[in-house]
Specification:
With about 210 residues, this protein is mostly helical. It is built from eight helices and no strands. It has helices spanning about 5-45, 50-65, 70-80, 85-110, 115-120, 125-155, 170-180, 180-210. The longest helix is centred in the N-terminal third of the chain and has 39 residues, at about 5-45. It starts with 5 loop residues before the first helix and ends with a helix. The relative contact order is 0.16.
Length: about 210
């Protein structure tokens, strides 16, 4: 490739791999936050009291209606004493929880009515009904969708660079500015994203087909 500096690729690779560790950490922890909080939001949305459901709905709609970038910058401005990585993980988790909550809701609504009726016939408590019957079926049905959101989160971690989280794109931009090798370093970063996300995407498709049978 004419004008492509392969030395820059070799020099920047260790830096990008260090940044990739931060990217991966933010993705894994952000996904855990989104998975747990999304379930809590989905359950709260089914509460019998409007004092619970209305605030939950308003907050969820606010999160969905505002860009992730704005949420990151706003959170960083509000919590100036908190480590940027922690802010990034939390904002990613909360942002995607607003979407995973809908996935959980669909999964819960997809549980056959006969399962609910059987639980009532057996006089199971509400807690036992949810823990032993409803949630295992609902979560199993939504696993592929949760996996797809995790992949989406992984591809949006570069936004964390805006709040100075030293993830992979932050390192790429820093190296590119110092060595004037933007093409090389961002090409390498893109390839790392591809290598990491594409096999996971194929795995999610396979899981979706398997659970669909």
């Amino acid at each position: 490739m004419n004008g492509f500096d392969w030395n820059a690729v070799g020099e920047s690779l260790p830096l990008l791999l260090e940044g990739f560790q931060v990217t991966l950490l933010a993705t894994v922890l952000g996904t855990l936050v989104a998975a747990v909080l999304g379930l809590v939001v989905a359950m709260a949305g089914r509460a019998p009291s409007t004092f619970v459901t209305v605030p939950v709905r308003l907050v969820t709609e606010f999160v969905r209606s505002t860009p992730l970038l704005v949420q990151l910058v706003g959170a960083a401005a509000l919590f100036t004493t908190v480590e940027p990585l922690y802010i990034g993980i939390t904002v990613l988790g909360v942002h995607y929880a607003a979407y995973t909550s809908e996935v959980y809701r669909a999964g819960i609504d997809g549980v056959p009515k006969g399962q609910w009726e059987a639980c009532r016939a057996l006089s199971l408590s509400p807690r036992r009904t949810w823990q032993a019957v409803i949630l295992p079926q609902a979560v199993r049905n939504v696993l592929p969708a949760l996996g797809n959101y995790a992949i989406s989160m992984f591809k949006e971690t570069p936004f964390l660079a805006v709040i100075t989280v030293q993830e992979m794109v932050f390192e790429a931009r820093k190296y590119g500015a110092e060595q004037f090798a933007y093409t090389e370093v961002f090409t390498l970063a893109g390839l790392i994203f591809l290598v990491a996300s594409y096999p996971t995407s194929l795995l999610m498709r396979k899981l979706e087909k398997r659970l669909g049978h």
